[in-house]
Amino acid sequence: MSNFDYDLFVIGAGSGGVRAARIAAGHGARVAIAEEHRVGGTCVIRGCVPKKLLVYGAHFAEDLSDARQFGWDVKETKFDWVVLRDNVLAEVARLEGIYGETLANHKVEVFKERAVLTGPQSVKLASGREITAKTILIATGGWPVRPEFEGSEHGITSNDVFHLETLPKRVVIAGGGYIANEFAGIFHGFGAHVTIVNRGDQILRGYDEQIRDRLLQISMTKGIEFRFNAPFEKITKNEDGTLHVEMKGCDAIDADIVLFATGRAPNVTGLGLDVAGVALNDKGAINVDDDNKSSVDSIYAVGDVTDRIQLTPVAIREGQAFADTVFGGKPTRVDYTNVPSAVFSHPPLAGVGLTEAQAKNKLGTIRTYTSDFRAMKNVLAGRNERALYKMIVDAATDVVVGLHMIGPDAPEILQAAAVAVKAKLTKADFDATVALHPSMAEELVLLK
Predict the structure, then answer these.
(1) What's the CATH number where 109 sits?
(2) CA 302, CA 137: separation in Å to the nearest integer?
(3) Among 14, 32, 229, 388, which residue has the fewest nearby CB atoms (within 10 Å)?
């Protein structure tokens, strides 16, 4: 037995922290974890899980409309925000309980209070208790960025959406990234008028240009409005509680809510990192090496609190690699190449590997294949929305280096296709695979 209270103390019970805690405990370590909010972290409590449930809820607007063309006598429909909101929150509570059971089953002690570093191998809980640990893991994730300008306190962040008392009729969303576009589709599906206001000149920076342009085109056709190169100047509250939004370069907008979806920052404020000597980079994230170790030998970090890929599955991989390396005697590092990602917009898009522009810059000579089509369901429904699939191939080796798509079920299709890109399969391998007909996914093996 060591002289420490625990072999591992984890700060933050999100996806990465929970995985690290239970795997380390499985390797025989004495583990404790502290969480000041709710066990499950951003993804389970106020991120991808409840948001995806809202995406499903919003998509019924189109499904119910399309059903009439398929012979269903759909009567007048009415959406009840409170019913969906409360059902989503109930599901979140159920998942939180499962996460807690998982930790308990692995004999991980849970402290439902804030913990801060007091040294390289010690923490202090909000209750005042001092705890020592041989190794400390920081997995506190990220937090929504709230821009500062006159009246910005009247806006909300994605954390607040899941608790709205009533459904807004007019929504202004600040930002152009995945959170902005996902909530734009959600609120539009629920019948709100949505305006995306972006200080830049494009949406979804980093995604393939053709794919993001297609989403912009479809979103505008649906009725979602966009204001580009329009930084906020001022928000004032009207007498009736609505908001008056002023921006540079365009007319003011009145709205019921303003949602800030302007990025997420590492959640490091007040953690005592300076006391312990943990170094941060210029973005305020914890600097770590390939083994997730910080500038202090006894302190590690995984997930969005570091400056790597902000995705839940990546945080889980990092937590697993940390636990296997430090406590399992199985040195493991995460491979960050060809990590697939998706935007659950309406319609959704997904991609893996290099975009066309990245491939040209890196490889020089490439071949690009596209399929631009209407899904069979959309044809019969009379919906003109078109899907776009894109494959990027290294001309020298025939290896597929990128796949990008937008259309119904794009994330579900890309997950399997991402295996092929990760395995460095060639265009010839795709061509040699028999199509699964009739499906949208068959387009991937029929590209000419």
Answers:
(1) 3.50.50.60
(2) 8
(3) 229
**Half-sphere exposure in the Cβ direction for 7 (13 Å, CA):** 19
Annotated active-site residue 163? The verdict is: no
Phi then psi dihedrals of residue 255, to 5 deg: -145, 160
Q: pLDDT at residue 293 above 60? A: yes
Q: What is the largest CA-CA distance in the chain?
A: 72
Q: Could you say which of 262, 279, 297 is where a domain stops?
A: 262
Q: State the catalytic residue, choosing from 27, 37, 346, 437.
A: 437
User: How many CB atoms within 10 Å of residue 412?
Assistant: 13
Q: Are 128 and 10 in the same domain?
A: yes
**158-170: pLDDT as tens digits:** 999 999 999 999 9
* Gap between the Cα atoms of 136 and 20, Å rounded: 11
- The residue-averaged pLDDT of 127-137 equals 98
Q: Which residue has the tokens 């008028």?
A: 193
The kind and range of the H/E element at 356 are helix 356-363
Domain-embedded: residue 42? yes
Phi-psi region of 90 (alpha: psi -120 to 50; beta: other; left: phi over 0): alpha
